[in-house]
Design goal:
Chain lengths: 460, 87
């Protein structure tokens, strides 16, 4: 079998790329090593309950009819209608730090008002920052010189806590870099979270993934699950074929890989190294899911998502312990405007975690450590929020090690490498990168990554 | 294919790639992107649809001819004149 393009990975970027190619009658095959769709935005089933991984909320919510926004572009390019995604908007979210709280909704003026009330001395600087963000061309695919966010923010805002409060959600939802954030990424995330906003698809990740996979297959695309790529066969800087885990060889004109940049180079046969462009991502998370016996708002959790730091100074870096309990994200799935309430209450708690520490534990210690650190994270949380331990009817946790196991991303690095390959090119002529290492993050970002790499390299 | 038929084909393509836009009152001499919300990604879709439906290759240097409806019609009519409407 000979293909125009083989796509590695049936996550959002791979599926989107596949739809675009199949739409224009290209012969395309998506190869996925896992038996489930989704990659970093997937789902799993425990005790007949389906849990999303990755998806707290979709960022970039814009209303039906807005076509120039990232969501609008995505729908248009994949020829979905806004209704197809069944998006339910958030109610209200919060950033909570010691002694300060900023709430935000999908109406940006609400947040501007919050900043004016909570930080009256900073509102002029904040407004100027917003103006700069709105003027910034964050989607430029040229690799320009790096610009970090901290100095930019400090030039507008003098209160370090406000800076950290702005960073907290943006970093948690899309920063591959420790300590600071590339400014273009800050702009992407600021727009996607504060200016646009949150929603969740009714039916969760499984619904969206099936929608995309069905479209891909209906357009004639081929999807191979549970059979990963063992080798990308390269000779004279050109890919000719891939070898699958079952030894089958598929020949192709081009390969688009969403497995990660370094992961892709490692998979090439012979193995490739490209100096200076291979910084490996380190940022990963532990997440615990708690099914509670009532609506979270009856337990005092009335926000859609809460980003918190129990310390004045917010640290976004790989923790020295297994996890960092001093900050985190709480997501109450129930607090979105669904047409009908969810069957059960669900609270999710996410903390920064160290892959290395989790990976070094023996099996027995690993299981004990999950329990112990989940307990510590809750203890710390309840210094800030109401206790819900007596209401938990089911719980489960996953760690960076789990993420590595199912996605293949080195270090379980959810946001990939801090050095993005914006143009998606590698030193191999017909081998391209999409997904988390290409530069657009989040669910919408990943999908746009697949679309834009196909448009740039594979349709012209 | 007649000029009118070519125009209709363009409208069909536009309806496919921009399903939420009203294309019934497109002015032939005003830029398409100023009338309906088209960006460079959408122009690629027009070109790709032409390739898919009629096997016509529009080289990148000729994209400018597709900026208005009148431009599309005058650029594509010679390429499509020997084609039957249904294909």
């Amino acid at each position: 079998m000979h293909y125009d393009t083989i796509i590695i990975g049936a996550g959002l970027s791979g599926l989107a790329a596949g739809i675009r190619l199949a739409m224009f009658d290209k012969k395309v095959c998506i190869v996925e090593k896992h038996t489930e769709l989704g990659g970093l935005n997937s789902f799993y089933v425990r005790k007949k309950r389906t849990f999303d991984v990755g998806l707290h909320a979709m960022t970039n919510f814009t209303a039906k009819g807005v076509r120039s926004s990232p969501l609008g572009k995505l729908l248009k390019q994949l020829r979905f209608s806004h209704d197809d995604f069944r998006l339910c908007q958030q109610k209200i979210s919060e950033i909570r730090f010691p002694g300060k709280s900023l709430c935000f909704t999908n109406e940006f003026e609400f947040m501007r008002q919050e900043v004016a009330e909570q930080f009256p001395g900073q509102i002029d600087g904040f407004n100027k920052l917003v103006k700069k963000i709105l003027m910034f061309d964050e989607l430029n695919l040229d690799d320009s010189k790096p610009l970090l966010s901290q100095p930019v923010l400090e030039s507008f805002i003098s209160d370090p806590m406000l800076i950290d409060m702005l960073f907290c959600p943006l970093m948690y939802y899309g920063n591959a870099r420790e300590g600071d954030m590339d400014f273009y990424q800050f702009v992407i995330m600021f727009k996607s979270i504060f200016i646009e906003g949150f929603s969740k698809p009714e039916g969760g990740m499984l619904y969206i993934l099936n929608l995309m996979a069905e479209k891909f297959k209906n357009l004639g695309g081929e999807l191979r699950m549970g059979n990963g790529v063992k080798a990308i066969n390269v000779s004279q800087r050109k890919v000719s074929s891939v070898t699958l885990e079952n030894e089958e060889e598929l020949t192709t004109e081009a390969v688009l890989s969403s497995m990660g940049y370094v992961e892709t180079l490692n998979c090439c046969e012979p193995k490739l190294t490209e100096s200076g462009r291979s910084e490996i991502g380190q940022v990963s998370f532990m997440e615990s899911l708690f099914i509670v016996d009532r609506e979270p708002q009856e337990l005092g959790y009335d926000k859609s998502i809460i980003f918190f730091s129990t310390k004045q100074k917010f640290d976004y870096k790989v923790p020295e312990d297994l996890i960092d309990i001093s900050s985190g994200v709480l997501c109450c799935s129930n607090n979105f405007k669904y047409p009908k309430p969810l069957k059960e209450g669900l609270i999710r708690l996410t903390n920064l975690a160290s892959f290395e520490k989790w990976d070094s534990l023996a099996r027995k210690d690993y299981i004990a450590a999950k329990k112990e650190w989940r307990g510590s994270a809750l203890e710390q949380l309840f210094t800030f929020f109401p206790d819900f331990r007596d209401n938990v009817v089911f719980l489960d946790s996953f760690t960076p090690k789990t993420i590595k196991k199912y996605t293949g991303h080195i270090n379980g690095a959810v946001y990939g490498s801090p050095e993005k390959i914006k143009n998606g090119k590698t030193s191999v002529k017909n081998l391209y990168i999409c997904g988390t290492d290409q530069g657009f993050l989040g669910i919408i970002g990943a999908t746009l990554s697949g679309i834009s790499m196909v448009n740039l390299h594979l349709l012209r | 294919m007649t000029i009118e038929e070519v125009r209709k084909i363009i409208l069909n393509i536009l309806a496919d790639i921009a399903p939420d836009e009203d294309i019934s009152c497109i002015d032939d001499n005003t830029k398409l992107r100023d009338q309906i919300d088209l960006d460079s990604m959408d122009f690629l879709d027009i070109v790709m649809e032409l390739r898919k439906r009629f096997n016509i290759e529009v080289p990148e240097k000729d994209y400018e001819h597709l900026a208005t409806m009148a431009g599309c019609v005058s650029y594509l009519t010679p390429l499509l004149k020997d084609r039957p409407l249904a294909s």
